[in-house]
Amino acid sequence: MPSRIFVTGLGFISGLGNNVQENLTSLLNFRSGIGLIRHIETILRDELLVSEVPMANEELRRFAGMPVMAAYSRNTLLGIIAAREAFLHAGLNDHPGLRIGLISGTTVGGMDQCEKYYQDFLNNDSKNAFIDTYDCADSTEKIADFLGLKGFITTISTACSSAANSIMFAARMMRAGKLDCAVAGGTESLTKFHLNGFNALKILDKQPCRPFDAGRNGINLGEGAAYLILETEKANKKTGNKVICELTGYGNACEAFHQTASSPDGKGAYLAMKKALEMSGENPDAVDYINAHGTGTDNNDLSEGRAIENLFTGKIPYVSSTKPFTGHMTSAAGSAEAIISILGLQHGIIWPNLNFSNPMPELKFQPAVEMIRGMDLNVVMSNSFGFGGNDSSLIFKKYGVH
Amino acid sequence: MDELINKLKKEVIAQLNLEDISVDDINPDSPLFGEGLGLDSIDALELIVLLEKNYGIKIEDPKDGKKIFYSIRTMAEYITEHQKKA
Amino acid sequence: MAYINGVGIISPQNTLPGSGFLEPAVEHTADFLRSVEPVYKSYIDPIVSRRLSRLIKMGITSAKICLQDAGIEAPDAIITGTGLGSVEDTEKILGELTKEEKFLNPTPFIQSTYNTISSQIAINLKCHQYNSTYVHRCFSLESCLIDALLQIQDGSATNVLAGGFDEMTHNHLTIIRRLGLWKREVIRNLDLWTCETPGALAGEGSAYFIISGERTEKTYALLAAVETLYRPESTGETAAFVVHFLSENGLIPEDVDIVLMGNNGHAEHDSICNEVIMQSLPGAARVLYKHLCGEYHTVSGFAMYIAANIIKRQLIPPSLLIHGLASKKLGNILIHNHFRDTDHSFILIRK
Hints:
The structure holds three protein chains of three kinds.
Chain A: E1 5-14, H1 20-28, E2 34-36, E3 49-51, H2 57-64, H3 74-90, E4 100-105, H4 111-123, H5 137-147, E5 153-156, H6 162-175, E6 181-188, H7 192-200, E7 221-222, E8 224-232, H8 233-239, E9 245-254, H9 267-280, E10 289-291, H10 298-311, E11 318-320, H11 323-326, H12 333-347, E12 379-386, E13 390-397
Parallel strand pairs in A: 3-7, 4-5, 4-6, 10-11, 10-12
Antiparallel strand pairs in A: 1-8, 1-9, 2-3, 6-8, 9-13, 12-13
Helix pairs in contact in A: 2-3, 3-5, 6-12, 9-10
Chain B: H1 2-15, H2 41-55, H3 65-68, H4 72-82
Helix pairs in contact in B: 1-4
Chain C: E1 2-10, E2 29-30, H1 46-49, H2 54-70, E3 77-81, H3 87-99, H4 106-112, H5 116-125, E4 130-134, H6 140-153, E5 159-166, H7 170-177, E6 187-188, E7 205-212, E8 221-230, H8 235-248, E9 258-260, H9 267-280, E10 285-288, H10 290-293, H11 300-313, E11 321-323, E12 332-339, E13 343-350
Parallel strand pairs in C: 3-4, 3-5, 9-10, 9-12
Antiparallel strand pairs in C: 1-7, 1-8, 2-6, 5-7, 8-13, 10-11, 12-13
Helix pairs in contact in C: 2-5, 3-4, 8-9
């Protein structure tokens, strides 16, 4: 009988705050992290809105306690800060006998440094210390080394569903008996590379994003890192950690439609959510809230909206996208939004879908526009759908509820 | 206009890497998208870059691309109308 | 454990369909080993192919070859691994961005995302099943295989299309040479093991496998187990891990017939490979292969192709270099690889 998977620690840094509590406070106070770009030298600086962690790399280094001259990418620094918070929360270094894995999602890797130093890399030896930051593994290994982890380690890159897939893979390793615990999530910093890349795809909104709004016009990119600590039931008996909630279901499916677009009926999204539900053993009616991928693009919100309607044929749960708060944190979105969903579960809150005015004519439902407190929430779903059609869905359940 | 049409054909072939297509294969009035050359949404974005890079014309909303990029001739007409002189 | 029921590989050797088993060896005199590529038109629709960079064509084509080899049209999962993804596309963008931040083309940006090949294969096959991509140095393909084994073990999948690919470019080689770990001059690949200059020989390749829960007449070999080891403190610890890995699979060191060694031409790297294997498996025949394909993060794919074919054909091609005596019965093959003694990987292939 595969083990139940418990969430026992959370770590989160974003444009909303440097830790879970600060992020929660921002959410409760309707404070969005969306604003102008401050820490990247780019011609898009005054054009695009993003959610940036309001610390330059030097400040992040100090905050993380890293030596100033070390060749650490912004990705790594954000990842260390969030992973450390989660790890300390669960006190895992007090349990040396446990097999702890680190599974991290990222796509940009050390690009924030590489894009600055690329011409140096080609032409001289002045920036050799940064060459190794290029690949995705660099941040994961530096996080592992910071936490003193020497167990199973890997990096997943499935674009915007990377962190969700990291959580899923960690859970599968644990259910197969290969790990006792895991630090799972993702990290992504803003870079000129992907700001320009998304801009070339013409899917960025120069105004604050409006998920599920008829007039929506695209994405605001964001950055940050978020990690969950997962424990098997057996490991939890050893750690004695308070269980925050349980990961009861997950699903991964592929849209298989187009490299940058979802199908009109959101088949991949539908299948991912369906798989997650089936695994959790819950009926669709049991889901209280969906934290949608809800990027604010024409395409995603329509296909995700349709997929939700096709799956939740009875009662559609509360649905909101929290990307107007955090921006689209790409490879970190899956774990960031998992944490936001879990915070909603813990505190009985439905998060509002900001910037919404006009319902989409194609959909029967509208997102939740008010923050609703005092709810009795038991089951929440968090969706993350990546470029290339890598669709993932996670289900978390309040612990102790049958 | 013919000169521009010919130039555009070469540029489109290069930008979209249409390796097996020659300038003579493209009818300036045939649709570029759907049937005709069978181009797609990513090609439309590439054509937006082409217009900006080679002709200094910026298209902000990709939805405008449908009319502008209907055919080589409509592209040429748009360029003639909007091109910024150096 | 599961079965290797299909192989598709594009490499610096003749490994395309219809080729022999690494005979004759392809000689390269180059600063990196470049793949022997097929005519992609035979595999990919030109309308799609026109915007694909080389690595993506290699990846998609080797996946198709693998599916044809296995006689499978619809895998139950598609899992890929790559250490660096499409370097060519990333370079295009970095080159533009660092000269002038303007006019970025969307196509290379889309193709530079690591999961692009995995998703393009799925689009091509209209496969809505599980799809994931691992990007972690020499754990990339290994993570895919571990994931594939988990899927088969828990019944989520019967046939998994799992593969790994990496490419080398002149610009990237220029950059990584600055770290002092790669050959700085052009050499003849077949002279790698007698070459006195320092550094590894760079290479590239793309290899896909059907990993299946069912043995069929197409089965090459058993993929018995895959493990990774992060930051061992000594070669002793790594050697002990090898012995433990084998015992978890019911084997003792003497049961291993061949080790496909991770040696790549860089002296320090190679001495670690040698020490680990001499300590743990002193009696096993040690086979060197990276003179044929060069070094790259997902090189275990080439090694798996070799191992699977050795088991199936029960012969070791003369293009491989063997130290020690290989037993007559070729039943248990260990593939060992590592990256800077930080990431060690182990794949056990059996009859």
